[in-house]
Specification:
By secondary structure, this protein is an all-alpha fold. 82% of the residues lie in helices and 0% in strands.
């Protein structure tokens, strides 16, 4: 990788964020608005507020719920998606139901989920699952249905065992679609994590931001929003690194095809 390529990537990654932060910095400098404090005051509050103790009390519980809900949604989405993608009869039966439920915004289901799951962590995890499962499930179905027919026929000719076929053909072939659905689900999960913590909660980032808003602690509220955005960027970056490792074979194949 040449120096010019490295510099171009740095400009691409950090150019717009630097411009936006600079615009916010100079645009809010000297502001006397109660609801729009200067960025310098928000950053000063950020460093004072988000101590290790505060992380343990609010941030780590949120990340734990997100991880549990995201993992459960991935297992459900991939498992059900593979079954629906492989068997057309099951797809014909399930498709109208799937279209109905995926059209319902997950925040609307929060009161319903609270009736059955209570107000503890189970409710918050269930809310995350209710929104994250759909992009994973639907992308898995699309990936399974897009498997090369020649590869399907080859497995049939050699009488490949179902489990071997699943491990060697179905999951690898559908992996790019599954990863795409998981990337979409990650951003949805972060949103639902915050929304679920705004209802009958006693910890979490969403709970903290609402408490700051209700107490008219505006710099603290903005610092929580900034922290939430930074967590989203960090999780997205970690997901991108994991994707490159898991789908290294796929990206290598695409580069080889592009160089022909």
């Amino acid at each position: 990788m040449t120096l010019r390529t490295v510099l171009w990537r740095l400009v691409t990654w950090f150019g717009l964020p630097v411009v936006l932060v600079a615009a916010w910095w100079f645009g809010s400098e000297g502001s006397r608005s109660f609801y729009w404090p200067p960025l310098t005051e928000i950053l000063r509050t950020f460093t004072q507020l988000w101590t290790p103790e505060r992380w343990a009390a609010d941030v780590l519980p949120s990340l734990g719920r997100l991880a549990a809900g995201y993992a459960a949604a991935a297992l459900l989405g991939v498992g059900i998606g593979v079954a629906i993608g492989l068997w057309w009869r099951l797809r014909a039966i399930a498709e109208p139901v799937l279209e109905f439920f995926r059209a319902i915004p997950p925040p609307v289901l929060v009161p319903v989920i609270m009736l059955f799951a209570g107000i503890g962590d189970g409710m918050k995890i269930a809310v995350i699952v209710s929104g994250c499962v759909w992009p994973i499930l639907l992308n898995t179905v699309a990936g399974v249905r897009a498997i090369d027919p020649i590869q399907r026929d080859t497995c049939a000719v050699f009488a490949t065992r179902p489990l071997t076929r699943l491990r060697r053909l179905v999951l690898p072939a559908a992996a790019p679609h599954i990863v795409t659905g998981m990337r979409q689900a990650l951003s949805i999960g972060i949103i639902l994590m915050v929304i679920s913590e705004m209802f009958a909660a006693h910890s979490g980032l969403g709970f903290a931001i609402v408490q700051f808003q209700r107490g008219f602690e505006i710099p603290e509220m903005w610092s929580g929003i900034i922290l939430l955005g930074l967590i989203g960027v960090a999780l997205s970056g970690a997901f991108a690194l994991a994707e490159r490792r898991v789908l290294a074979w796929y990206h290598g194949m695409r580069r080889a095809e592009g160089s022909r």
